[in-house]
Each structure stands twice: as structure tokens, then as C-alpha cells.
User: What shape does this take?
Amino acid sequence: MATMDHYTIYDILRREGVPLRTSAHFGDGVGAALWDRDDTAETRYVEPGHHTLSLYLEGGTGIRRRQGASAAPHGGPGSLCVMPAGVSTSWDVNGHVSMFHLYVPRAAFDRAVIEALDVDPAAVRLRDETFVRDPSIETVIRSVMLPLRWDDPADRVAVGHAGRMLIAYLASRFTDRPTKALLARGGLAPAVLRRVADFVESHLDAPLSIDDLAAVAGLSPYHFARAFKRSTGEAPHRFVLSRRIERAKALIAAGGLPLTEVATAVGFSSQSHFTLRFREVVGLTPKRFASTA
Assistant: This one.
């Protein structure tokens, strides 16, 4: 079985000697563990590299989360904690607790966001929650996941499916999401589309990339490309090419610039590349177009 040590929180608990009942990988980088703890200590999780869902199965009334000079209310059976990646937390432990942990890599969570919400993951934030109650999550863990044998190949499909259900639920119920203006399903909002178009027009002499345009829109490159095509009917690179050629046509028609300078002015590094793309779009070479302008 692959090691679990790459999960920050798992690794910290193991190094502190907290008794581990069982652990397993569920696929897609997701892992889970059952812990039985009975001690008095302070545990600190420093910027974990993954999201963690924690459910207190038994005990936990003596555990508190430190928050500045104060501490959060005590936990207890059924208490749920959502610990986002990158968020450091400190805990005062006093007494017995049996805990279920689900460890979710950022990439796996992002995929769940795409599948469950069709929203750009870059604009979604998993909330930091301490000692909340959610009967749906508790039921899936207690009634579906715990009765299964995690190390039995016959149960792995069911375990993996339950894990994906929990992650999708987290994405749906425990996230702060963007307004409809950033929803990938509906394309780009008009204001965002204008901002991208204006950026393109003012940078036609530059080697624009999909990353540049996505940054202007505030989306990941993948979701920007999808949303842009839904809004305009064409891929971003085709839009940029068409704007370069339209600018080139205007410069040629105005006269006064050699074709080599026109090519540079619209972002082509060579005359041959400019000629190839111009003829592809217009049906004429730049020289022939100039003779007819």
C-alpha cells in the first residue's frame, strides 16, 4: 500500500504517536484514516497541503480549537471540522476522541468543483469550519463508509464512490463561490468579455497567450477557453488571430508602412508567418491585398 505520509495532517498525528485504527487510499489522491486518541496535548497543523474533512465519531468534548487569545467551543460526537489547504490551526486536546479524517488534494477537489458546480475552481474557496453539524455527511460516513472494509478490493468501488460523494457535497455546501458572472456554464459576463477584447486590442503587437487572457478574465485557462467559446462562438486563439488580421488590413489600407513593419505591429515575428496567416484568413497575401486596397 502507498504511504500516507504525504498528507500533512496524517503525518503530524503519526509523528505525535496518535494511535491509528486504519487508513486507506480511495483513488484520485484521496485518502482517509480513523484515529483513536486519548491524551492531553496541543496539536498544530501548519499550512496543510490538502483539504481535510474531520468527523468526531466518539468523544471529543475535551478538544478545543485555539483562535487567537480565545478558543472555539468544545467539540463532541457528531462534530464536523472542515480544514482547507493552507490554513494553519491549533488544537488543545484533553481526553478521548475517535476521529474520521478524509484527506482531499487540491486537484481532486477542483475536479469535484467542475463536475458538481461547473464553476471555475480558481474562483471557489472552501470555508474553514469548526464544530459544525451536518447530518448528511455524518450519515454517509457512519452508515456507508465505516461498515465497509477499506482494504478489501470488493469494497473499494463503494468506498471510492462514497468518498467522491463527500467531496462533491463539500464543494456544494461548504464553499464560497463566484457570482453568475464567472460561471463557466453561461460563458463570460458582458463586462468580462469587453475587458478581454479591450486587452487584446491594446496588445496586438505582443505574443499573447491563453494564460494572459485568462488572467484578465479572472479564470483558469481551461475554463476561460470554454467560457470564451460559449460567449463568442470561437476559440480565443482564433479571436486573437482575427483581430490581428483586421488591424493588419487597416494598416495596409492606410498605407505608409512596409509589410514587414505591419507584421511586427500586429504581433508576428516573421514576414513569412504573417503572410501565411493573412492568406489563411483573407484568402489573399498581404501584398496582393495591398494592391487591391
Q: What stands out?
A: Residues 153-173 form the longest helix (21 residues).
